[in-house]
Amino acid sequence: MSTRKLIRVEDVMKREFDLVDGLATVAEALKSMRHVNSRVLVVNKRHPDDEYGIVMLSDIAKKVLARDRSPARVNVYEVMSKPVLSVDPKMDIRYCARLFDRFGLSRAPVIDAGNVVGIVSYTDMVVRGMLKEWLEEHGEQ
């Protein structure tokens, strides 16, 4: 039997992220961005029965920059993905990594009780989860 420590998404996720309105322009959204390291903007729900959206910086590069579109004339909703696959904060990072692989994700919002509480990525799972655990097991920091 494995004695591997269970590492949950909530242990490795980034708790700081940017929440934007889908009607904002890409320029406005980028200017308001405070957490560039998350590489993503979460698009807020318009009403309780709506779903969250997501815009990765790579989406902006592909759909605005590469097409020579003006970020001041493109709304976030034009480049976002919606609805998004989300993960539960209590999910084991091994299952989260499998979910990412199965659906071609690189990052996802973490949703608890209907609210976004963080963002998780492959990097978070490997560096803040797997690598940290390995270093602790081998007495390294």
Q: Can you tell me about this structure?
A:
There is one protein chain. By secondary structure, the protein is α+β, with helices and mostly antiparallel strands. The chain has one domain: CBS-domain (Roll), CATH 3.10.580. Helix content is about 35%, strand content about 15%. It has six helices and five strands; from the N terminus they run αβαββαααββα. A three-stranded mixed beta sheet has the order 1-2-3. The chain has a two-stranded antiparallel ribbon with strand order 4-5. A hairpin with a 2-residue loop joins strand 4 and strand 5. The protein is elongated. The mean pLDDT is about 90.
Basic shape: elongated
Summed up, the domain count is 1
Please give the order of strands in the largest beta sheet.
1-2-3
Q: Which sheet architecture does the biggest sheet show?
A: 3 strands, mixed
Given as residue ranges, the uncertain stretches (5+ residues, pLDDT < 50) are none
Instruction: Report the CATH superfamily.
Output: CBS-domain
Mean of residue pLDDT? Answer: 92
Helical segment count: 6
User: How far apart, in Å, are the first and last alpha carbons?
Assistant: 27 Å
CATH architecture: Roll
Write the layout of secondary structure elements.
Elements: H1 9-12, E1 18-20, H2 26-32, E2 40-43, E3 53-56, H3 57-65, H4 76-79, H5 93-103, E4 107-112, E5 115-121, H6 122-137
Task: Please describe the structure with a list of short key phrases separated by commas or semicolons.
141 residues; alpha+beta; CBS-domain; three-stranded mixed beta sheet; 6 helices; 5 strands
